[in-house]
Amino acid sequence: EILPPSIRLPPMAARKALLATAGLTTYGASSYAAFLYFSPPRKKKNDASATSPCACGSSCVADPLRNARYDVLAPDYDAKIDLDETLMGIGLLRRCLLFFHAAGDVLEVGAGTGRNLPYYRADQRVTLTDASPAMVAVLRDKLPRSTKMTAERSDGARLGERWGADAFDTVVDTFGLCSFDDPVGVLRQMRRVCRPDGKILLLEHGRTKKWDFLNRMLDDSAEEHAREWGCVWNRDIDRILEEAGLEAEVQRTWHFGTTYYLVCRPNSKEVTAELRTNCGSK
Fold it and tell me: What is the pTM of this model?
């Protein structure tokens, strides 16, 4: 035998599955890099065409009405991103995050059209929220009958006002920090409504820690992307976590370090009395 008796190749079916998975991963990563590379460059601020669609008159990234894009996108949102998420393996990341870590009473913030719905257990008690009424309408249509899942419109910056402290065992946000005007404030609110022994689960996109050329691409296309999708995709996730007082017990990155898989504890850093008793974002 070429190989020692203690070493055996996996069955042919397993090898084919591994090759297929590797091929899809490589293709997805290449497609993502190409998408970043060929995205339209950021327009100069003195170019009127670059700022005219934005109510603030200077930056779509800072536009207070940027989130109105989600109401426009909602009816066709799933169709627009299904292929991209499939090629990039986002569904698998969603499944792993929720299967291994979501427990007890769950609150999902920025649930959008409910792309996490297939990955929750059927008997799980889940409250899904989003600030966009159009997104919530699509989400409600997807809710299975005879379920413990509910959907409502709610502002991520005011979770404490809605539910009070220590209301949920698990708080989830997937690809939502890019949409909030104050992501640090929203994370602080998520800490407030999460029980001290609970978990905050995040799947986000942002700046890579290793590849400066990718960060430049994200920066150069940030205005165009925010104008089209309402999403600020070049945020510093580590800095946001630090300012919110969160530390990740589990942190993995994908897609050249631009996708973050995070499992955090609400009390990973000292929680002030103000955070646990007041409704403010601090």
Answer: 0.79
Tens digits of residue pLDDT in 126-143: 999 999 999 999 999 999
The C-alpha R_g of the chain, in whole angstroms, comes to 20
Query: How would you class 52 by CB atoms within 10 Å of its CB: exposed for 0-12, middle for 13-18, buried for 19 or more?
Result: exposed
Alpha-carbon span 98 to 169, nearest angstrom: 13
The number of residues making up the chain comes to 282
Alpha carbon separation from 98 to 91, 94, 203, 264 (Å, rounded) = 11, 6, 10, 13
**Owner of token pair 């946000």:** 173
Is the backbone of residue 246 left (phi > 0), alpha (psi -120 to 50) or beta?
beta
Instruction: Classify 184 as helix, strand or coil.
Output: helix
DSSP β-bridge partners for residue 260: 204, 253
